[in-house]
Write a structure and sequence with these properties.
Layout lengths: L4 H9 L7 H13 L4 H14 L8 H15 L13 E6 L6 H14 L4 E5 L5 H14 L2 E3 L7 H14 L4 E5 L7 H18 L6 E7 L4 H13 L4 E5 L8 H10 L3 E5 L7 E3 L2 H8 L8
Parallel strand pairs: 1-4, 1-5, 2-3, 2-4, 5-6, 6-7
Antiparallel strand pairs: 7-8
Length: 294
């Protein structure tokens, strides 16, 4: 079993009562191994070094407390949505294989269980499996879906989806997009076109451009966030396969480096295995002493 974040930190500082260069190097290595990313790791180490200058002698608990405060400060707060516009349009982006379609199905189910009427748009028209999978998830979640023939213009599907959401009185419209990190210009043009046609129906849509990342892919998640952030304005993250804290560093690193709040986390494969991101609970889970017993 992979070591948790807290286990890696504990091993790094075990038996040390003085925060010297060796201690900081060990913590730095533990952070990098936890997929926090080099830039974010160096930021943490620099801040930690500055804070312990006066008192390099401290207990394990004191050092961990400082580290926890630094990490908490790096993760952006998730903005509260007091009331959703109606229909609330979510454009979901991400590469194939990160759980994008599964996340859409889970979100549809989550919103439906909250009493909202949901409609899905199958705008990944380049991959038959993507449309077929979304149809299955729509059936499982008990929501409507808009789709066209394979190879149809994705923007046309997005337009039809939003129009259907308005005419049918839907509360939430979730639009899937092609999961390809193809030429950045092509990606940007496609997403821009989808945005523009959606705004012909609802001027301020989409209300959320959600990037789905797989926590288990480590540094690949950073590369994906970089490419999609260049192609469009990402407004939220959903992190999948976060059913443990071993890869929790990805959440800290990506959200810090790109300033994008995490809105949901996927915790398993079941339709109910998704939950709203709670920063306090997440940071606390990274430093869970119970992990040491595993």
């Amino acid at each position: 079993m992979a070591l948790s974040f807290f286990q890696k930190i504990s091993r790094a500082v075990a038996g040390r009562s003085r925060v010297d260069d060796d201690t900081l190097d060990a913590i730095e290595e533990a952070l990098v191994e936890s997929d926090m990313g080099v830039d974010t790791t160096l930021k943490v180490i620099d801040n930690l070094e500055e804070r312990v200058q006066k008192d390099k002698y401290m207990s394990f608990d004191e050092l961990v407390g400082l580290l926890r405060e630094e990490i908490d400060a790096l993760v952006p707060d998730t903005p509260e949505i007091s009331s959703l516009p109606r229909p609330y349009v979510i454009l979901v982006v991400g590469v194939n294989g990160v759980g994008k379609t599964t996340t859409i199905g889970k979100l549809a189910n989550l919103y439906r269980k909250q009493g909202k009427k949901v409609i899905l748009g199958a705008a990944d028209t380049f991959r038959a499996a993507a449309v077929d999978q979304l149809v299955i998830w729509a059936e499982r979640a008990g929501v409507d879906i808009v789709r066209q023939q394979m190879g149809s213009d994705p923007a046309s599907v997005a337009y039809d989806t939003v129009q259907a959401a308005v005419s049918r009185g839907a509360d939430v419209a979730i639009i899937d997009t092609a999961g390809r990190l193809h030429n950045r210009v092509d990606l940007m043009n496609e997403l821009t076109k989808i945005r523009n046609v959606v705004r012909k129906v609802i001027p301020d849509a989409p209300h959320d451009v959600m990037l789905v990342l797989d926590a288990s892919t480590g540094q690949n998640a950073f590369a994906q966030a970089k490419e999609f952030s260049r192609a469009t304005d990402i407004t939220s993250l959903t992190v999948t396969k976060l059913d443990g804290t071993a890869k929790g560093g990805v959440v800290v690193g990506v959200s810090d480096q790109y300033g994008i709040p995490v809105r949901f986390i996927g915790t398993g494969e079941g339709i109910d295995d998704i939950e709203a991101f709670d920063k306090d609970s997440f940071v606390a889970s990274l430093f869970n002493p119970e992990d040491l017993k595993q």
